[in-house]
């Protein structure tokens, strides 16, 4: 934990680094300023981010641009139904040394990186999807009983297409819960479409330059965790989470009617860490209730499991979270 003066200095440096990184990415990505901000918030909060949107609206481009702006190792995995776990983690192969003796050697897979793009993650089978579970949660990989740490910062950005149903395998709840945020990528506006055309049909395409090193990202992650949060704000975050669970005293009418299971404790961690980033971006050194409200939907929308009635009526989890925010009192005194 930093001292007061050190923390304030680190907080100012965090804000400057965040804005430089955001501006560099915006040289390539048209519009989506809030989306870029939320992706970077997930990075500095130390979590992983799931991007959902129809094809061709810049999900993969956003991730690759982020990788270009960071002086970190980058790898991309194109998920397909025939992808195997060993294609992600790596495999042991028999090699022969200079003396002619044979032995097993582990060939690392693409997961041994810092920025990992899991493209169309819902097109792989559950067995392959689960290969990412340990890496995302523990930030390590176990092969043949040997545990190997992944280089920090380890950041997974998954993309999925909500429209393509044939040949897809929806992510199980345990896998979804490993993502700090789920972000919905919207279709560009008319002005943004015109700007996309201008930027991408010229001879010289825009390119993001290096802004931050990996060790600097790790240092800023520590600054985020140093942000203090008052007891009444912590209580509000916990009550927001409890309100997602039917059968509790905090439940709302929509939760009672449409939700089968609420968010896990990881949802509370996502709320608090995301709110700490929001506070630093706003130039404050403590978390406010408004910070929690701003990150509630990205942190919780993928953690609510609807019951049969909710699925049948195609209820949006964002609408349920909106009701929770409206009905959960900020102060219970």
C-alpha end-to-end distance: 31 Å
CATH-defined fold name of the largest domain = Rossmann fold
Helix count equals 15
Instruction: State the low-pLDDT regions, or none.
Output: none
Helix content: 40-55%
- Please identify, by name, the CATH architecture of the largest domain: 3-Layer(aba) Sandwich
Bulk shape: globular
CATH top level of the largest domain? Alpha Beta
What can be said about the biggest beta sheet? 5 strands, parallel
The CATH superfamily of the largest domain bears the name P-loop containing nucleotide triphosphate hydrolases
Q: Main sheet: which strands, in order across?
A: 3-6-9-1-10
> How does the helix and strand content classify structurally?
alpha/beta
Fraction of residues in β-strands: 15-25%
* Cα radius of gyration in angstroms: 21 Å
Work out the count of structural domains: 2
Q: Which sequence of SSEs, written as H and E, runs from N to C?
A: HHEHEEHEEEHHEEEHEHEHHHEHHEHH
**How confident is the prediction overall: mean pLDDT?**
88
Give the number of DSSP strands: 13
